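quick one
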Amino acid sequence: RQSMKACNQFVAEFEQVIKKPKKHFSKTYYTGIDLGTACVVLAVLDENYEPVAGAYRYADVVRDGMVVDYIGAVELVRELKEELEQKLKTELIYAAASLPPGTDELDGGAIKNVVQSAGFELTNLLDEPTAANQLLKITDGAVVDIGGGTTGISIVEKGQVVKVADEATGGTHLSLVIAGAYKLAFDAAEKYKRNEQHHDELLTVLKPVIEKISSIIIQQTKGYNVEGIYLVGGTACLKNIETIIEKTTGIPTYKPTNPMFVTPLGIAVSC
Ligand code: ATP
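structure w/ adenosine-5'-triphosphate:
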């Protein structure tokens, strides 16, 4: 509970600096880059690993850890880098990035090249749920990162990651269901879904996909003594998603106040 409180505080500070960067002097800066299927987030920490600035943009340059628009990805990261450099009046040099678990052999090289081509020195490349746990500091349980394209699961026992997995169901699938049910174009469905005022009404429509995500969690945690599920990732922002997951998995399920920024901040902390 203590670590969840600290995590919530850290994320709240980050949300503040996205709006208003802290411009105090720091000898060095660490940038966490989350190149996601739906969203690219840059989180900047100072020499004491305190959040000082951040920026994010919805984009379609990466799909499930695969860079599908290399030039677009480089341009976007460079753009966000320059935007933050102007705000902080400094050059950002060091960066860490992440990948959905199990995709490093597939595309770790491309993510690395994007980060380096955008002008950063890459100091670390780690998997998303492991990055999230840098903030959550779970010693026993499962970190479940429900992103845009995929759901990543990392099982932690006695502070050690004992299993990582990634399955292709995430927020994009929820948007596709909304697009079908409400006869909306995909982008409009995405926007509709992200508006919290629609969440109560959407939960009924989205229940089958959330149950599918739950069945993935059940499958992947089989054989492990998982006493708690900790939700992160943009899709976990959906109000009461944790209630359905807890009910279907039978495992107590927790989520931070804003699950969307836990992974990018965890990446920055690992820089
Ligand atoms: P992946 O990890 O699968 O590569 P990603 O890193 O882009 O994807 P995140 O940034 O963690 O994933 O989450 C993006 C997803 O979260 C998108 O599907 C987006 O629509 C969804 N999302 C973001 N904010 C909200 C919100 N407030 N309510 C519901 N869904 C949201």
